[in-house]
Design brief:
Blueprint: H1 2-15, H2 20-31, H3 34-56, H4 59-65, H5 67-90, H6 106-118, H7 121-136, H8 143-168, H9 174-204
Helix pairs in contact: 1-8, 2-3, 2-8, 2-9, 3-6, 3-7, 3-8, 4-7, 5-6, 5-9
Pfam family, one: LysE
Keywords: Cell membrane, Membrane, Transmembrane, Transmembrane helix
Subcellular location: Cell membrane
Amino acid sequence: MNFFLQGLTMGIAYDAPIGLANLFVINAALTQTRRKSFFSTLIVIIFDVALAFSCFFGIGAVMKKFEWLQLAILLIGSLIVIYMGINLLRSQTTDISAEATPEMTIFKTITSAFVVIWFNPQAIIDGSMMLGAFQVTLPTYSYPVFIAGVGIASALWFIVLNAVVTKFKDKFNAKVLRIINLICGVIIILYGGKLLFNFITLLIH
């Protein structure tokens, strides 16, 4: 139980900081129907847990070893993230009712969530340092229990985040939603710009 609780708290610490995944879940809860936003949240959870598992077992070390792989993910990821932010800025939502919810296909939801979670090499490396370093302190037999705690923490965090935003979204009018979209869009573009800057820096060096 001790190892499970360690994984649970580590998982919360891993997901809690505001990042692209949290912004994705918040925006889905605000702009989609309850059912669609919950589906989007489940997809984020699946990719996030998969990333946590990969970080725990050393994908960050692989990226550090193969610089070309890090460069490729940085370039592609930065451009896609910036594109997502621009699309959010351009959205002209004037009604936040279920009937006015923008159409989000299953394919688009899955690909967008995949990009948000997996095309941020800095997050992969940071996650590897956090989870990978913790792995060294654990006995081998505790790995399944610890990583299960991390996975459950991810599911709890995003489900609760989605539920809270969904519950209170009716209090937001179209103008407030537009402002939130603009803020989220700017933050996402800044994330993408940071990734692009990191790519240029690595390329020069």
